[in-house]
Amino acid sequence: MKPQFLIAAPSSNSGKTTITLGLLRLLHKRGMSVQPFKCGPDYIDTKHHSFAAHKTSVNLDTFMMSEAHLKEVYGKYAGDADVVITEGVMGLFDGADRMKGSSAEIAMVLELPVILVVNAKAMAYSVAPLIYGFMHFHPGVKIAGVIFNFVNTESHYQFLKDGCADLGIAPLGYVPANEHIKIPSRHLGLAISPENDYESIIEAAAAHISRTVDVDLILEMTQRPDPVHTPFIRVEKGGLPIAVASDEAFNFTYLENLDALRNAGEVSFFSPLHDPVMPAAEILYLAGGYPELYLEQLSANMTMRESVRAFCENGGKVIAECGGMMYLGESIGDKEGLEYPMVGFLGLKTTMQGAKLSLGYRIVEIGEKRFKGHEFHYSVSAETEALERIGKVYNARGKEVDMAVYRKGNVVASYMHVYWGENGEWLRAE
């Protein structure tokens, strides 16, 4: 038995990430091994989780993963931990198609109790019908207790406790507003930036939460049997040499995707920012990230750009996602319109000028193969030459969308972040 729970909220911007980070660090400081998970495809929250818990956070996603694979991943990483904390996404029941892919669906599949974080800044006893609705909307979702956020006084908290008492649900404490524990935002949500002192922010969040949240009660009431880890049967490890871009500019990678690459061959990590050339490989994986924040450095590293272009031109197999696709193009423009030359293999220019958000789950069908993932970017791209487009792309509701998947030689590139952690065997044959 061990404490296992999912932190959710009625809506986004309720403070569940800050509370999650505070709890992760607080329990780590108690000497406990805390395994974090994140619902949905978000890369940035997992980085914050990993920093707070000193343990790599893992994505859970019922749109991109089968139920069996979801359970496998959860059991694989949760088994050795003392406490397991999963942070939800958006509102508890918000999914790509009704509840599909929602935090509630993940809680039901994994049989996790839910700790509901409620923004009670402008509410008193009226929280009762709000909580009642979340308690009774779906019988498969079990709300174990409530933490009230943005509550500054004990007298305010008393009104909220009265509502909980009448509902028969545990009040688990409250968190006063505090600007010093707010994670700064950037254009892709919660930012990973050297400008921010995350250590101080997370330490402050842990101390702040410890004063008014009953952490011991949370651990006591969320005890669940240890998760069972039944690993999938995978074929024998392959021997393909695989190069993976990994640095400040390219780091949007799923842990299970990397494991699938390691199972297919020998993985070498390299930095397009700092290394002179890419390593010898048969497959190159250029993941997304923040290339737009490092345009001058990426452009100035001409030996790296030339080595990547030569690899593409000589028939190397490349998977380029979002920022990786941008890097393979002719140039990337900043917000002011200044263009920085990039690899130049794809006849494609991207810019952050006039940026607009494109996001959502995606399904790509290429021949008999079907891949799931998500699109999330602000840059805008334009072709400078005719590029071959392959496959059909659909959103979570099955509607075809205009997201290009390019193929040139053995290079496949698109804005889509693909999840292949469950079906990575195609890597050996492509």
UniProtKB/TrEMBL annotation:
Enzyme Commission number, as recorded: 6.3.5.11
Reactions this protein catalyses: cob(II)yrinate + 2 L-glutamine + 2 ATP + 2 H2O = cob(II)yrinate a,c diamide + 2 L-glutamate + 2 ADP + 2 phosphate + 2 H(+)
Needed co-factor(s): Mg(2+)
Pathway(s) of this molecule: Cofactor biosynthesis; adenosylcobalamin biosynthesis; cob(II)yrinate a,c-diamide from sirohydrochlorin (anaerobic route): step 10/10
CDD domains cross-referenced by the UniProt entry: CobB_N, GATase1_CobB
GO biological process annotation, one example: cobalamin biosynthetic process
Boundaries of every CobQ/CobB/MinD/ParA nucleotide binding domain copy: 6-188
Domain CobB/CobQ-like glutamine amidotransferase: 242-422
Catalytic residues identified in the record: C322
Written domain comment of the UniProt record: Comprises of two domains. The C-terminal domain contains the binding site for glutamine and catalyzes the hydrolysis of this substrate to glutamate and ammonia. The N-terminal domain is anticipated to bind ATP and cobyrinate and catalyzes the ultimate synthesis of the diamide product. The ammonia produced via the glutaminase domain is probably translocated to the adjacent domain via a molecular tunnel, where it reacts with an activated intermediate.
Function: Catalyzes the ATP-dependent amidation of the two carboxylate groups at positions a and c of cobyrinate, using either L-glutamine or ammonia as the nitrogen source.
Similarity comment: family membership: Belongs to the CobB/CbiA family.
Miscellaneous remark of the record: The a and c carboxylates of cobyrinate are activated for nucleophilic attack via formation of a phosphorylated intermediate by ATP. CbiA catalyzes first the amidation of the c-carboxylate, and then that of the a-carboxylate.
PANTHER family cross-referenced by the UniProt entry: COBYRINATE A,C-DIAMIDE SYNTHASE
Protein name: Cobyrinate a,c-diamide synthase
Annotated organism of origin: Chitinophaga pinensis (strain ATCC 43595 / DSM 2588 / LMG 13176 / NBRC 15968 / NCIMB 11800 / UQM 2034)
